[in-house]
Specification:
It contains 16 helices and eight strands. By secondary structure, it is an alpha/beta fold. Helix 8 packs across helix 16 and helix 14 packs across helix 15. The protein is globular and about 60 Å long.
């Protein structure tokens, strides 16, 4: 926390920025938003008082996809300047009520939706999944995440993953009601102290069970546990990585044809931020009947869905067409039947975009594990 007391430019080494503009030029949100990361950095380095940013809603347009960091020729992380400003805004209470409610929910109930702690594992009550705290050390821990625990649509993804893991005879457990938010989005909204509190609570359980491998539903959870949790020795994998490993080892194969023409949407926190591009596609290609057609903007150049960086709880400026709607329109032009993704936020934002564009009868949004479950002959029940 000591480094947070340093001025933002010094803390993030912003003085080395050469103002080339590649960060803003590559930013997917800048297509529709007044957000200009280069201007944010420039003004951060020349002004002592950064309160000028506090009334600018475009600070909340940033989805923290990190395209700017990928493009920066000086190796800077411009996205961290946005997060740094949010930290200052949170500290002074200059944030919208929706953000306050999300942070308050994470503090009181362990999830930004503010849902009851004792209902976190209700989705699994009929599945007889072992409690990881009662298993021998060195097992596989399935870290479910808040969205998959509480959102009915994403609960289907969690159940599908359980189907796949059991088909491969994987011994695994969950933390149940003891699991709390990984804190990824909390940190991106600017509440570093709360992130550290959530990390410590999860780490206490991780230390007790010493899992060999932690498998996550969400790329956001995977990124936080793998790259931001201090002292975590377990291997952390997104489910797409773990399932592809099972296929490679001959422990899992699909026996049911799923005749479908699909495209794959790369989640930013899985692809751009952690370089996981091939495994989801390899899982897709291993399902009989699947025809994969790539988006024009895919892999490192994938168009963000706008679900990350706290955007699930904050609209920002709300200017222009949502990028998720652009994504749906692109998929329709390609003539595919479904958009496949591997992230709860992407699933929710893209599915909402299908509805807002009036294309429910033309295209579907399906999670990769739902498709894998279909490849095992089990059709997920989506309400």
């Amino acid at each position: 926390m000591e480094e947070l007391q340093q001025p933002l430019p010094e803390r993030l080494d912003l003085f080395t920025c050469i103002q080339c503009g590649k960060c803003t030029g590559g930013c997917p949100v800048s297509i529709k938003s007044p957000l200009n990361i280069r201007r944010v950095i420039r003004e951060s380095t020349v002004r002592e008082d950064l309160h000028i940013f506090f009334d600018r809603l475009e600070i909340w347009d940033c989805t923290t996809c990190s395209t700017c960091a990928i493009r920066c020729p000086r190796g800077l992380r411009p996205v961290d300047a946005i997060i740094g400003l949010r930290e200052m805004m949170v500290e002074e209470g200059r944030i919208e009520k929706t953000i306050i409610d999300a942070l308050d929910g994470a503090y009181k109930y362990g999830n930004p939706w503010g849902r009851a702690k004792n209902k976190r594992a209700e989705w699994a009550q009929d599945l007889e999944i072992p409690n990881a705290l009662e298993m021998d050390p060195g097992q596989v821990l399935y870290f479910v995440c808040c969205a998959a625990s509480y959102d009915p649509r994403v609960q289907v993804v969690a159940k599908s993953l359980v189907t796949v893991l059991r088909a491969a005879e994987v011994s695994f457990g969950i933390l149940g009601n003891k699991e709390v938010c990984c804190g990824s989005e909390i940190r991106r909204m600017g509440e570093v102290g709360l992130f550290e509190m959530l990390m410590e609570e999860n780490m206490k359980n991780f230390t007790k069970i010493e899992p060999k491998t932690i498998v996550t539903t969400s790329p956001h959870c995977m990124n936080a546990l793998k790259n931001e949790y201090e002292g975590l020795d377990s291997e952390v994998l997104h489910y797409s990585q773990f399932v592809w490993r099972l296929i490679e080892e001959g422990k899992l194969s699909f026996n049911t044809e799923v005749p479908m023409k699909v495209t794959y949407h790369d989640p930013c926190y899985l692809g751009k931020q952690n370089g996981v591009f091939d495994e989801p596609r390899d899982v897709l290609k291993s399902i009989p009947g699947i025809e994969l057609i790539e988006f024009g903007r895919c892999r490192e150049n994938s168009l963000c869905c706008e679900g990350g960086g706290g955007r699930m709880w904050m609209e920002g400026t709300g200017i222009g067409k949502r990028l998720s709607e652009v994504r749906v329109e692109d998929a329709l032009e390609m003539g595919v039947e479904a958009i496949i993704t591997a992230c709860p936020f992407c699933l929710l934002t893209l599915e909402d975009a299908v509805k807002t564009t009036g294309n429910e009868e033309k295209i579907k949004v399906i999670d990769l594990m739902e498709l894998a479950s279909m490849g095992l002959g089990v059709t997920p029940e989506v309400e």
